[in-house]
Specification:
flat, six-stranded mixed sheet, 3 domains, 10 strands, Rossmann fold, two-stranded antiparallel ribbon
């Protein structure tokens, strides 16, 4: 059994190495999200073979058997010329589906992207401890003595020993008869982190851009869930107006019309005021857009972000996906009017799926 455990551990280490080696590629594939189970993700890795000896045919010669010339093949199939030939019989490369827990994926992300451990703000304890007086013990302070249980224990002892007289029903508890109320401590995880996603769903945001957003959000969720016992997620979409929606609507809605980013910020602030007091919650905001905002709305959007949102949240991340229709002006506006004043406001450009890896490193690398 010990040998099996050692082999399994070695196999897992090989798998971890393969996943780390190809993590950038995996993080850009939205197909992984479709493979997600409750706690496991199936990741394709190349077929893993344990090194072994391969024996040639009997009498075929080889090293140490007779003389040979430089370039002489050492076994069947070697030394043949390249080019078209008959159909082969050798197996090709196979892919192995390996199940990896989300917790292990988060750890691999941390190692590969060099993500630091997040230090939660607000309450010192991530768990809430509750005390329930639901047990009885034979020792304890006199203030917690359970008189009924003590009397019953003394009565049982006297009946068992034959000293109880029904005509003179007198029960005298001894020291060992005393019973005391006691408690158990339960540690209940607190939902102490909130993620608020905001996305522009106007006509300029294509399905390809939203697929990039969905893939990046999956990896952001995976990391933040590994850092907090409980995470709540809220979703806000907007064009010229904004509203809160569920997760499926967030990724599947496409509308037309203008764009007013300030409307998304107003909904975000409303969620914070009603549900997530900043002194008790760790709040993370992720906004995705193609940077095409109505010109006169930029001033209001920047003022809301700079004066109201940024001072209340752990981290505000703006990811600008590249669209053939978007102007991209909003990113430049943030970098000149907000980023220099708030180090918890970060921006990244996400032109394609390959940029997801670097975008997440930009957003989460500071461990806010």
């Amino acid at each position: 059994m010990l040998q099996i455990e050692q082999d399994h551990h070695r196999f897992r280490q090989i798998v971890r190495g393969k996943i780390r080696q190809n993590l950038r590629k995996y993080m850009s594939q939205s197909e992984l999200i479709g493979r997600k189970g409750k706690q496991l993700v199936s990741i394709p890795v190349p077929q893993l073979d344990v090194p072994h000896f391969r024996y040639g045919e009997k009498g075929s010669g080889g090293v140490g058997q007779g003389e040979g010339e430089v370039g002489t093949p050492l076994g069947p199939g070697q030394g043949q010329q390249d080019g078209p030939g008959q159909a082969g019989s050798e197996p090709g490369e196979h892919m192995l589906e390996v199940e990896v827990s989300l917790e292990e994926l988060a750890q691999l992300m941390a190692e590969e992207l060099e993500l630091p451990r997040i230090q939660p703000k607000g309450q010192d304890s991530i768990h809430e401890e509750k005390y329930r007086y639901n047990t009885i013990r034979s020792t304890g302070p006199e203030s917690l003595r359970h008189f009924k249980r003590t009397y019953l224990q003394a009565l049982r002892r006297q009946v068992a020993s034959g000293t109880y007289d029904p005509r003179r029903p007198r029960v005298v508890p001894f020291r060992e008869d005393r019973r005391y109320r006691s408690w158990t401590v339960t540690r209940e995880p607190m939902a102490n982190a909130a993620i608020i996603y905001m996305m522009d769903v106007s006509g300029s945001m294509t399905d390809e851009q939203k697929r990039i957003v969905r893939t990046e959000a999956f990896w952001i969720d995976t990391w933040l869930k590994s850092q907090y016992e409980g995470v709540q997620r809220r979703y806000v979409i907007h064009d010229a107006v904004a509203r809160e929606v569920d997760e499926e609507t967030f990724y599947r809605t496409r509308e037309s019309g203008g764009t007013r980013i300030s409307t998304a910020y107003e909904v975000c602030l409303q969620l914070i005021r009603q549900h997530y007091p900043p002194e008790q919650w760790n709040i993370y905001c992720f906004q995705f857009s193609d940077g095409d905002n109505w010109g006169e709305d930029n001033r209001r959007s920047i003022r809301l972000l700079r004066e109201q949102i940024a001072p209340q949240v752990n981290l505000f991340c703006y990811g600008q996906v590249e669209s053939p229709y978007g102007s991209g002006d909003y990113l430049r506006a943030l970098e000149s009017a907000v980023v220099p004043y708030h180090d918890n406001v970060l921006t990244s450009q996400i032109p394609d799926e390959e940029a997801i890896y670097d975008s997440i490193r930009t957003f989460l690398g500071k461990g806010k």
